C-alpha cells in the first residue's frame, strides 16, 4: 500500500525511537526521578526574554493579513537581520537576497538537496553523523558516500575525503559543532578541506558544494569558532533557531550564501522555489516576524558550557574516555565493551540510564550522551554513571 522505500525505512530499527519509548515506559513505571534520560537532542533552555518581547509585540501589532501567505524566500526583515548578523560573525558580505528562511535546519537540508542533486549524484557524509542526513540525501535520489572522521580526535581526514570523490560527487557535508561528538572543526582542518576541494575542481573541471550544517553554531565553549566562508567560496550555510533560541517546535531556520558564492542568485531562487513546491511554502510567519524584531541574535552559550563541564567531570570521574566537547549538546565516549548496543541496553535495563549507541550514527564502539538536560538531572546521574562503568569492570 505504501512506497517500498518508505516501507523499508519503517521496518528499519531505530535506537532513538526505542530509547524514546523505553524512556517513557520507565518514567511511568519508576517515576521521572529514577530515570536518567540522556538520549534527547532538544534544547534544555526556554527561549530568551528578548524573543518573548518581540513575539508579544508581533501578536499585539494591528497588522492586516498578519496570518496570510508570505514570500517563499522568507520575510525580508528576517533575512535582513540574519544577513547582518552573519556578516558581523563571519566578516564576509551577505545580502538578504541570498538568505532563505526555512522550516528549521531539517527543512533547509531537504531544500538544499532537492535544489542541487540529480538522481545518482553523491554526497559525502563524515561518520559519525546526524542519522537523518542519509534520508535527506536519498529523498531526492542522491547516494551517500560515508567517510570516517579520524579515530581519536574526530578531525576531517582530507586524504580519505579526496579518495571518496567521484565524477558523481556533488557535495561534502560538514556539521560543526558536531552531533554526536561535540567536535568543533578547526580553521586549519576546514581550510585543508577547502584547498583539497579547489585542487580537485581544478583537476576535474567539476564543482563541489560545501554544505555546512550548523544548528549549534553559537553554542561553542572554547571562545573561538572556525569560519567556513574563508575555507571555500561555495559554502551553503544552514542555520537554525531550534537549539540556539530554544525554538525547536516552532520550525524556523535558514540557508545563507555569501557574496563570494558565484551562482548565489540562481541557487537562492532554486531554494525558494523548492520551499514552495515541497509544500513548506515558507517558514512560519509569526516566527519570522518575532526573529526580525529581536534586538540581537547573539546567544549566551554559558548554560550549555556549564552542562558540558559538569557532564564531562562526571564521565571522567566514572572512568569513561572521550574527547572533551567543544560545542553543541553532546559527548561521545568510548563504550567499555566493543558492542555499543549491548552496552546501551544494559545501561537502560539495569540502571534506567538512556544513552544512544554510536552505531546509530555510523560509529560503533561509542555512545552518545546529551547534556541538554536539567542541571538537576546531570547532578543526580553521578552515581549511576559510576555504577555503570564499574559494572563493566572500570
Ligand atoms: N542537523 C543536526 C546536526 C542536528 O542535530 C539537528 C537536530 O537535532 C538538525 C540538523 C535539525 O534541526 P532543526 O530542528 O533545526 O530542523
TrEMBL record:
The keyword Ion transport does not apply. SUPFAM superfamilies: PLP-dependent transferases (SSF53383). Keywords: Aminotransferase, Transferase. The keyword Transferase applies. Its EC number is 2.6.1.-. Residues 34-380 form the Aminotransferase class I/classII large domain. InterPro entries: Aminotransferase_I/II_large, NHTrfase_class1_PyrdxlP-BS, PyrdxlP-dep_Trfase, PyrdxlP-dep_Trfase_major. Its cofactor is pyridoxal 5'-phosphate. GO terms for molecular function: pyridoxal phosphate binding; transaminase activity. Coiled coil: none annotated. Belongs to the class-I pyridoxal-phosphate-dependent aminotransferase family. This is Aminotransferase. It comes from Laceyella tengchongensis.
Amino acid at each position: 500500500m505504501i512506497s517500498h522505500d518508505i516501507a523499508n525505512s519503517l521496518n528499519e530499527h531505530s535506537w532513538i525511537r526505542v530509547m524514546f519509548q523505553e524512556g517513557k515506559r520507565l518514567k511511568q513505571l519508576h517515576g521521572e526521578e529514577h530515570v536518567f534520560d540522556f538520549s534527547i537532542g532538544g534544547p534544555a533552555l526556554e527561549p530568551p526574554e528578548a524573543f518573548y518581547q518581540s513575539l508579544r509585540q508581533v501578536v499585539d501589532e494591528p497588522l492586516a493579513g498578519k496570518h496570510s501567505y508570505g514570500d517563499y524566500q522568507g520575510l525580508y526583515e528576517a533575512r535582513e537581520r540574519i544577513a547582518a548578523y552573519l556578516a558581523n560573525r563571519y566578516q564576509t558580505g551577505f545580502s538578504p537576497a541570498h538568505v532563505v528562511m526555512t522550516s528549521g535546519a531539517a527543512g533547509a537540508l531537504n531544500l538544499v538537496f532537492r535544489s542541487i542533486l540529480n538522481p545518482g549524484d553523491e554526497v559525502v557524509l563524515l561518520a559519525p553523523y546526524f542519522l537523518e542526513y542519509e534520508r535527506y540525501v536519498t529523498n531526492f535520489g542522491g547516494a551517500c558516500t560515508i567517510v570516517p572522521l579520524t579515530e581519536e580526535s574526530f578531525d576531517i581526514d582530507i586524504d580519505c575525503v579526496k579518495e571518496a570523490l567521484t565524477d558523481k560527487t556533488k557535495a561534502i557535508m560538514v556539521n560543526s559543532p558536531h552531533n554526536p561528538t561535540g567536535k568543533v572543526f578547526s580553521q586549519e582542518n576546514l581550510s585543508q578541506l577547502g584547498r583539497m576541494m579547489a585542487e580537485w575542481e581544478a583537476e576535474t573541471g567539476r564543482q563541489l558544494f560545501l554544505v555546512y550544517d550548523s544548528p549549534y553554531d553559537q553554542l561553542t565553549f572554547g571562545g573561538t569558532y572556525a569560519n567556513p566562508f574563508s575555507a571555500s567560496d561555495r559554502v551553503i550555510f544552514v542555520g537554525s533557531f531550534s537549539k540556539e533560541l530554544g525554538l525547536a517546535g516552532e520550525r524556523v531556520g535558514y540557508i545563507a550564501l555569501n557574496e563570494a558564492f558565484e551562482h548565489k542568485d540562481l541557487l537562492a531562487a532554486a531554494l525558494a522555489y523548492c520551499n514552495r513546491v515541497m509544500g513548506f511554502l515558507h517558514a512560519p510567519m509569526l516566527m519570522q516576524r518575532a526573529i526580525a524584531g529581536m534586538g540581537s541574535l547573539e546567544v549566551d552559550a554559558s548554560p550549555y558550557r556549564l552542562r558540558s563541564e559538569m557532564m564531562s567531570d562526571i564521565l571522567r570521574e566514572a572512568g569513561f574516555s572521550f574527547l572533551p566537547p567543544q560545542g553543541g549538546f553532546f559527548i561521545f565516549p568510548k563504550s567499555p565493551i566493543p558492542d555499543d548496543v549491548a552496552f546501551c541496553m544494559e545501561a537502560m535495563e539495569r540502571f534506567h540510564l538512556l544513552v544512544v549507541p554510536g552505531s546509530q550514527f555510523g560509529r560503533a564502539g561509542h555512545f552518545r550522551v546529551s547534556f541538554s538536560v536539567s542541571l538537576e538531572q546531570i547532578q543526580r546521574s553521578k552515581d549511576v554513571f559510576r555504577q555503570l562503568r564499574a559494572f563493566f569492570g572500570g
